[in-house]
Design a protein that fits this description.
With 447 residues, the chain is an alpha/beta fold. It has 13 helices and 14 strands. The strands form 4 sheets. Strands 4-10-9-8-7-5-6 form a 7-stranded mixed β-sheet, sandwiched between helices. The protein has a 3-stranded antiparallel β-sheet with strand order 11-12-14. Helix 2 packs antiparallel against helix 9, helix 3 packs parallel to helix 9 and helix 6 packs across helix 7.
């Protein structure tokens, strides 16, 4: 049974396989959901109809084990190979460069695991940086203070266990970006991995990954030092702007299906062949995915990921311009309706943002983001990353990192539009927020 709780209206709606006469019909339930305006596409996206069709077809027709030699198994293998090519095309890669994973978290952890394992392999028997024998050199990783928890928490675990040293390079409070020189200054002789997200999931600022990694590669060529592995988590950029692995200068790139209207699986780009980067498995089993991610492949979801990627490849220009127009209309409408009462967080002159994201705070007391959302009758959004929804009234560490004052950060809403968001949806949200603020003012005796 699927349950939808709506505390704002005090309702409890239930949708079962067979709907009794005392319960809402499917059409009634659909109408009730449709009055909501969903603006949390950075958290997750619905499946495109073509993706649902691809998943359904694979589950019904290609249900065989892809490792089997009989026709049903070979059909499943063909479906997977097609999807691998579709995902590769989306990012300018080759099919052999794509490893399917359960999602972005697994892909990110696989890169970190690889960096540590490769470092130990290369430095087996080395002394420390001062040449003291018997004291293993500890690997060093560079990242930013803007990263998703699937990067941040594994690295904090490595620090806690004494396995690695990590530098969290701070973003500039003037640009919302991690600057190139700050990253270069953090490099040490033991640096084995630099991992920088392509765009932040809360403020949408695009990080200068291309410029940073280009400098790192130039530096390594001139000094002929050991190779530093380069990774970006592209969860928030794929499907919103064009993403190309060659342009980014990456060794690894994380792909997350449910951020671009695909299923909740992911993939990792790893350049294959020649002097390509290493990859070390975290799991061991049947040998699937070139022995790098064993386990019988999830054919249905992989087919859906491939179709979602194909849609991005063919429509990215339309998707980007459409979302940008609606996001800009959202910000213009908020400024027109509320003026100095709002502060748009993470909008820095000279810094690019992904086209769908607006992080906004309503100034003043008793206007916390969570309170506004709890009182809104149409708006469905979040105050930050969905994985931080349990943190109560604490402001986002991302907003604090880019210099947003504590009281303003506490009042933040993250509004992220999608492919189907309309100007009418935005008008409804702005009207909803006006009503919410009137109610708050009445509570405060300001009416």
């Amino acid at each position: 049974m699927y349950v939808i709780d709506d505390q704002r209206r005090g309702k409890r709606l239930a949708c079962q396989g067979l709907v009794r006469s005392t319960e809402p019909s499917a059409s009634q339930l659909t109408r009730d959901i449709e009055i909501e305006v969903y603006l949390d596409y950075n958290a997750t996206t619905p499946l495109e109809p073509a993706v649902v069709e691809a998943v359904t077809n694979a589950l019904t027709e290609a249900w065989g084990n892809p490792s089997s030699s009989y026709p049903q198994g070979q059909l499943a293998k063909q479906v997977i190979n097609k999807a691998r090519a579709q995902v590769a095309d989306m990012i300018g890669a080759s099919p052999g460069d794509i490893i399917f994973t359960s999602g972005g978290t697994e892909a990110n952890n696989l890169v970190i695991h690889t960096a540590i394992t490769h470092f130990k392999t290369c430095h087996h028997g080395d002394g420390n940086a001062n040449g003291d024998a018997g004291h293993p050199l500890k690997p060093h990783i560079i990242t930013t203070n803007l990263e998703h928890d699937s990067i941040k928490l594994p690295l904090e675990h490595l620090i806690k266990e004494g396995i690695a040293d990590v530098t969290f390079v701070p973003a500039s409070t003037k640009t919302g970006r991690v600057e190139v020189e700050a990253v270069m200054d953090a490099i040490r002789p033991a640096t084995c991995l630099i991992t920088i997200m392509h765009a932040n999931n809360e403020i949408g600022v695009i990080q200068p990954v291309t410029e940073i990694f280009e400098r790192v590669r130039e530096e390594q060529k001139s000094h002929r030092g050991r190779k530093i592995l380069l990774h970006t988590d592209a969860a928030q950029t794929i499907g919103k702007i064009e993403v190309n692995v060659s342009d980014l200068n990456v060794d690894y790139l994380t792909i997350v299906g449910h951020k671009f209207y695909g299923p909740r699986i992911g993939a990792l780009y790893v350049k294959r062949g020649g002097a390509g980067p290493p990859i070390y498995p975290m799991l061991f089993g049947g040998g699937q995915e070139r022995n790098l991610r064993p386990g019988t492949e999830n054919t249905g979801m992989i087919a859906g990921l491939g179709k979602a990627a194909e849609l991005v490849t063919g429509n990215i220009g339309k998707y980007e311009s459409g979302m940008r127009a609606v996001r800009d209309y959202l910000e213009e409408s908020l400024l027109s309706a509320f003026g100095d009462m709002i502060h748009i967080n993470g909008k820095f002159e000279g810094s690019r943002r992904i086209p769908n994201t607006c992080n906004v705070s309503f100034m003043g007391k008793n206007r916390q983001g969570r309170k506004l959302l709890s009182m809104a009758t149409s708006l469905q959004a979040s105050v930050g990353a969905a994985c931080h929804s349990h943190t109560g009234e604490r402001p986002s560490h991302i907003l604090l990192a880019i210099g947003v004052p504590y009281d303003i950060a506490t009042n933040a809403l993250r509004l992220s539009v999608g492919r189907g968001t309309t100007f009418a949806d935005i008008d409804r949200v702005v009207s909803d927020l006006k009503d919410v603020l009137k109610s708050i003012d009445a509570e405060n005796g300001n009416s």
